[in-house]
Design a protein that fits this description.
Two copies of one chain form a homodimer.
Chain A lengths: L4 H8 L3 H8 L7 H14 L5 H8 L4 E6 L7 H17 L3 E6 L7 H12 L3 E4 L7 H9 L4 E4 L8 E5 L1 H14 L5 E5 L5 H16 L9 E3 L4 H12 L7 E4 L2 H13 L9 E3 L5 H5 L6 E3 L2 H16 L7 E4 L2 E3 L9
Parallel strand pairs in A: 1-2, 1-3, 3-4, 4-5, 5-11, 6-7, 6-8, 8-9
Antiparallel strand pairs in A: 10-12
Helix pairs in contact in A: 1-2, 1-3, 5-13, 8-9, 10-11
The first copy, chain A, binds a DNA duplex through helix 2 and helix 4.
Chain lengths: ~325, ~325
DNA sequence: AAGCAAATTGACAGCGCTGTCATTTCTGCC
DNA sequence: GGCAGAAATGACAGCGCTGTCAATTTGCTT
């Protein structure tokens, strides 16, 4: 038989309401009472019934994680964020549900409404690129559902987590410059994604600072996929004056660049330096291993959820926390030929 | 203000209980009444409150998907299954929660217990490799939680979904044999995973049928990762008598094999044919594209959940459904040199 | 047309919690 | 020591549904 709050109350010699107060960390309970109740809960292995809690308390203890599984970045990235969000939710005894939302499909606002009406999440975690989709943000505000974002494009009053991607991109470009490279190409990610913009901006910033005029032929469009990296690289390698280094906006594209280098008989890193962004597991498995920027995706998911939860629980003002990046220098970059 | 069941009842001129019956597709409601109630629900955009439903009805309308994020196969595989499970749950208005369970950690039974006590899932979907972990299955039965499995190792009374992986592996090996290959190597996946066993068995079956004696040097251990594929291939390419074809137990390892081929100056498919298993997005992006077995992961997730739900809803006996595979012949395999 | 079983519908309590507000118990202070 | 005000605790209703069982209606027989 299930242990109920009432049973705990009887065991601890207090009223059910007091047990409820302890359960919810409310004020106005003496330490002695609190301790007694805690002990009773522990002893009886009491587990509050989430449905009863949410029915009576008018909150769901549910966080929904929204992602776009159409236009999405690498699925390992999302999987890691998901793990992080889950960890934070678990820690605070919230449950989490995941929700794919295809923004290209027209009905996503209806699907969002259905999610809210059907499940009443207390809050929502947004992942790129839907962190930046204005109609969606608007609807969430209208419906009064708090949200936290992972790597949002705008940093206004948004809460969540971000990394200084522009500075990271600048750092990795500077690494190439220090190795003596001058003709450094950049492969852009999907247009309009914040990640693409920042990384391009960081690349440009470093080049300008080094006094190298921009060569438009060296900046080519990709789409975050391996295949788009291959395409972009073929374009670059067909140039009369080839680049000696390529900075791709993510690891998948960088891998594509390395693949294409093989096709053109270019040895990495001897003839061509390549670097990426994200530090996916793949990047370490390549040979040579890929120089890249480590982005702590799992941790970012955790922190975003943590901010959301601290807001939901009224623990002071939540903010947009910044996580550090780290430049992982590996075998794919070397001195310019 | 929220529309409640009572409001619908008033609008339809029936008792709340009757609306409840319609909501739950129960018997003993005349078609006329049912229709009237349905119309009222529709008109008022009624959404039942899940917590109230589960509190009163003693069921949660929740399905948990369990996976091992430690020892896991490619995360895209899990992501696809997750999408499929979600689709099925949505269709039947169940909610879904995901649950990583690291079987290498000792506390996974405790974590499973916590999941059950905290969230009361009505059922559980198991993904490889935890489909086969006996203590876990035992605990689920003890706790009386129904489950469905994706690609379970044992096919006893388990419900869920499977593919005839052995026959698929045999088919792809036969494809290599038809191309004239005799020295065909196999890279095994993580030991004990059902996938590894079946694929090895299918390979052997085809070789035996073709009358080719097994050369133990051609069967090497891998671990489903790109890196392990590279390692395995290096081992194979160092052999005095190299294989002319390699069948790797999944696409990631096959990609590793192709990578290593580049290191050894072997042109795929001219000098070496390579094939994989899974038909991951990556396999199409490679050049040459990878010959592989298409496994409908998303569909498998959906079907497994569908079986579970039909069992939960008492819609006849659920079973272990089988999905077809399809051999995707692409550029990475060609006639033996 | 009466009579009976089966089908349909409804009344009501209660699932396990929390919100509201009343009550009791502590403080500090003159 | 007595009193006001704050802090701690408790009583009780009710969140939105469903299970149980009783009441009513329907369909069928004879």
């Amino acid at each position: 038989m299930r242990v109920r709050l009432e049973d705990v109350a009887r065991a601890a010699g207090v009223s059910p309401k007091t047990v409820s107060r302890v359960l919810n960390d409310e004020a106005n309970v003496t330490d002695a009472t609190r301790e007694r109740v805690r002990a009773a809960m522990e002893a009886m292995d009491y587990r509050p019934h989430p449905s009863a809690r949410s029915l009576a308390g008018n909150r769901s203890f549910l966080v929904a994680m929204l992602y776009d599984n159409n236009d999405n970045p690498a699925s390992t990235y999302l999987a890691e964020i998901q793990d992080g969000v889950l960890e934070a939710c678990d820690a605070h005894r919230y449950s989490m549900m995941v929700r794919p939302l295809r923004m290209r499909d027209g009905d996503f606002i209806r699907r969002l409404d259905a999610l809210i009406s059907d499940h009443h999440p207390d809050g929502v975690v947004l992942t790129p690129p839907i962190t930046d989709y204005t109609p969606l943000l608007k609807r969430l505000r209208e419906r009064n559902v708090p949200y936290a974002s992972v790597s949002p494009l705008r940093h206004g009053k948004t809460i969540g987590v971000m990394m200084d991607e522009q500075r990271a991109a600048r750092a990795i470009t500077e690494h190439l410059l220090e190795l003596g490279h001058r003709r450094i190409a950049h492969v852009i990610g999907i247009a309009n994604h914040g990640a693409s913009r920042w990384r391009l901006a960081g690349y440009r910033e470093a080049m300008v600072a080094a006094g190298i005029p921009e060569d438009p032929a060296l900046v080519v469009q990709g789409a975050f996929t391996f295949g788009s990296g291959v395409e972009a690289a073929r374009q670059l390698f067909s140039l009369a004056e080839r680049p000696t280094a390529v900075f791709a906006a993510n690891d998948d594209m960088a891998t594509g660049v390395m693949w294409a280098a093989g096709e053109y008989g270019l040895k990495v890193p001897h003839d061509l330096s390549v670097c990426g962004f994200d530090d996916t597991p793949l990047s370490r498995q390549l040979w040579p291993a890929l120089t890249t920027i480590q982005q702590p995706s799992r941790e970012m998911g955790r922190l975003a959820a943590e901010q959301l939860l601290s807001m939901l629980r009224g623990h002071g003002p939540a903010k947009l926390v910044q996580v550090p990046f780290s430049l992982q220098i590996r075998g794919s970059t070397a001195a310019a030929p």
